[in-house]
Write a structure and sequence with these properties.
By secondary structure, the chain is an all-alpha fold. The chain has one domain. It contains one helix and no strands. The protein is rod-shaped and about 55 Å long. 0% of the residues are buried. Keywords: Membrane, Transmembrane, Transmembrane helix.
């Protein structure tokens, strides 16, 4: 059971990192589309 718990703990971090990266990318794309629609710059 200890190996299973340690393995799950180690493998959860890449999954969490990927999820956060996807959320950030979606937010940036949403902002880019909104800026393009309003004819304004992103920054």
């Amino acid at each position: 059971m200890n190996e299973l718990t340690l393995g799950a703990y180690i493998l959860i971090w890449p999954a969490l990192t990927l999820w956060i990266l996807v959320v950030l990318c979606r937010a940036v794309l949403k902002d880019m589309r909104a800026a393009k629609k309003n004819n304004s710059e992103l920054v």
